[in-house]
Amino acid sequence: MNDPKYIGMDVHMAMTVIAVLNSAGKVVAEAIIETTASAILDFLKSQRSTVHVTFEEGTQAAWLYDLIHPHVAEVVVCDPRQIAEQGNKSDRTDAKRLAELLRTNGLKAIYHGEHGTQALKELAHSYGSIIRDGTRVKNRLKGLFRGRGIVCRGTGVYSEEERDQWVKRLDHAALRVRICRLWKELDLLVQLRKEAEKDLMAEAHKHPEIKILRSIPGIGPLRAAVILSFAITPYRFRTRKQFWRYCGLGLRSKVTSEYALVQGRVCRSKKRPLVRGLDPDYNHALKEAFKGAAVTAAMGPWKSHFDAMVENGTRAPLALLTLARKIAVIAWVLWKKGERYDENKVKFVHAA
């Protein structure tokens, strides 16, 4: 009989600790190998049975998934935040616990599947990193001026035309050198941003789904590319609430005492779930894309709907969140159906 094996891998930069369990949960093998493609594949090929593998999401997770997936029956990349710590911690115990949770179906998997959008995703990561680096440099620039008691508002401090005026306000030569280097770094990042955006757009045009996403109010070509890069496929989300949660737009709710005994019968109570803010685990790029789309739509084609919500007592930030959730679910549905946006099919309900 082909007894399946469940392999837990605790992956580190240099070495990987492995534990192998059989279907009964007994440890049948343990190993410490180099974190290299050849060593990992050699070990997996030595297991003469149906093999299921798991490891935690991390820096090497995407590479490992692509490496292992063709050679085993199942690969589960799990979310380490969903695994509660128990007792003493070590690499060996972590590997065994991962294998046991895999065997008992106790892991929350992180999606690693579509390869057709891999290039787009890498380019989107590159673009996002440059944007964040540029923001850090801008914050450092303003921080240096403010730290010397110089009022620094707006975007004038970044402008090449105004730099001489800003430098004259500094009375320390070394500080002027530091500021000038930050400006040079910012100029280089601006150029890199243009190149990264150009590459991202060129790759995005290869995917027909981009046209569907771009037809939705607030979603331009850049946001469409980011959404496709990180959502990958709408079919990985069974419901709109799952998609909202992944995009950082899902509401956390809490309810206790759901059931009560009424005349000898167990009945569900009529307590309404209490909303406890947005879910903290989400994809930051998608949340930024949909919230940005909501701001654009609120100032453009959906301005009347945004104004109606505000007039009915909804605070502006919550109204924008509502529009972001609306845009997200429209994108999810249309993407699944392969249809473009039709404003005649969209309904807005504004509670008084």
Would you give an account of this structure?
- The protein is of the alpha/beta class and 352 residues long.
- The protein folds into three domains: 5-103, Nucleotidyltransferase, domain 5 (2-Layer Sandwich), CATH 3.30.420.140; 118-204; 236-269 and 283-341, no CATH class.
- Helix content is 48%, strand content 14%.
- The protein is built from twelve helices and nine strands.
- The chain has helices at residues 37-45, 61-68, 91-103, 118-147, 163-168, 173-204, 209-214, 221-231, 240-246, 284-298, 303-311, 316-337, and strands at 5-11, 15-21, 27-34, 51-56, 74-78, 251-254, 259-262, 265-268, 274-278.
- Strands 3-2-1-4-5 form a five-stranded mixed sheet. Strands 6-9 form a two-stranded antiparallel sheet.
- Strand 7 and strand 8 (265-268) form a beta hairpin.
- It is globular and about 75 Å long.
- The N and C termini lie far apart (66 Å).
Q: What is the element layout, followed by pairings?
A:
Layout: E1 5-11, E2 15-21, E3 27-34, H1 37-45, E4 51-56, H2 61-68, E5 74-78, H3 91-103, H4 118-147, H5 163-168, H6 173-204, H7 209-214, H8 221-231, H9 240-246, E6 251-254, E7 259-262, E8 265-268, E9 274-278, H10 284-298, H11 303-311, H12 316-337
Parallel strand pairs: 1-4, 4-5
Antiparallel strand pairs: 1-2, 2-3, 6-9, 7-8
Helix pairs in contact: 4-6, 4-8, 6-8, 8-10, 10-12
